[in-house]
Specification:
Elements (H helix, E strand, L loop, with lengths): L5 E4 L6 E3 L3 E5 L8 E2 L2 H11 L6 E5 L38 H12 L7 H22 L13
Antiparallel strand pairs: 1-2, 3-4, 3-5
Length: 152
């Protein structure tokens, strides 16, 4: 059986784009529907989205489907196991969680208090997951991280 796996769908006609298949990508970074099966479909989307000076780049879809199997991460007392956030000096290390919202949730769900050390640790976990999502978006040829880039 010669089944072709669908990698993505065309942003205009919704036709399946298979693995290891030529497609076109809109170079406008904010384009919501950035992958097209043909130049005709790319040309059809331009007047709808009113892009200024758009163009399409020809690309080849991945040869194999990216795996969505992400092993759950364990929290070690000294560091996070399974990945660490980027150590760029430009990457902010601020707390990414609203403390009052998290504490209210934990209290409402369990009646428990929340330690102050939870927020930096949870922020590190969020950074790791964001780094993975950024990489998935980059592998798909997108410049926008979407909800589908965060997998369970």
């Amino acid at each position: 059986m010669n089944d072709v796996m669908t990698w993505r769908h065309c942003g205009t006609c919704k036709k399946s784009i298979g693995l290891n298949t030529k497609h076109f990508v809109c170079t406008i970074s904010g384009c919501a529907k950035s992958v097209y099966c043909s130049m005709g479909c790319f040309d059809a989307h331009v007047p709808i989205f009113r892009h200024k000076d758009p163009w399409a780049e020809e690309r080849l879809s991945p040869k194999v489907m990216p795996t969505n199997d992400v092993a759950p991460q364990r929290i070690d007392s000294a560091r996070l196991v399974g990945g660490t956030p980027k150590t760029d000096t430009n990457t902010p290390k601020d707390v990414l969680v609203v403390a009052s919202k998290l504490k209210d949730y934990i209290d409402a769900k369990s009646g428990m208090n929340t330690s102050g050390t939870v927020l930096p640790r949870l922020s590190d976990i969020i950074r790791i997951e964001c780094d993975k999502a950024i990489e998935r978006a980059r592998n798909d040829g997108r410049k926008t991280v979407m909800d589908r880039d965060f997998v369970r």
